[in-house]
Amino acid sequence: MKNKALSMALATLTLLPALAWAHAGHADHGPGGLLQGLLHPITGPDHLAAMLAVGVWSALAVRPAWLAPAAFVALLAVGAVAGFVGVAVPGVEPMVAASLLVLGLLLAQRRQLPLALTTVLVGAFAFFHGAAHGTELGGAGQWLALVGMLVSTALLHGTGMALGHAVVARHRWLAVLAGASTALLGAALLVRMA
Length: 194
Description:
single chain; 8 helices; 78% helix; 0% strand; HupE_UreJ; Urease accessory protein; transmembrane helix; transmembrane
């Protein structure tokens, strides 16, 4: 049973970041609403990889562990609202890619940062993720979509934290592998945008 859980965690941590192409491939979930918001982070591999990385990194290196996920969810909402109301946020895609690079490096190294820096860094990345998603979640049900997106994001953070506590903390190489693959993906996305 333990080997099966380890295999599943390894597959999740190593394969998901490899799929993360910044905002390409989001499925169309209809005109808006709660379901669209719930599904959006799961069908956006960049968001999925970033959320899991925040959760695993938080479990391994952030104290209190809830700080980075809470900052992310709060600033994700602010960024999404900015997108809803049409605020033109420059550099959204490069910042989403940079978030993968930086979060991957932090995870791979299990790097602890001062609480203020953790909050500002994760919050800034979250704002750009929110701005990108806010422009995609427009429509009549955008506020319900936002609620769904925040719930999914929090659940993804929780999943990452659970993986971090249950598996990655016991097998340091998994953190290195997952973080390095996420960071390499972010770097590749940045190079592709250049």
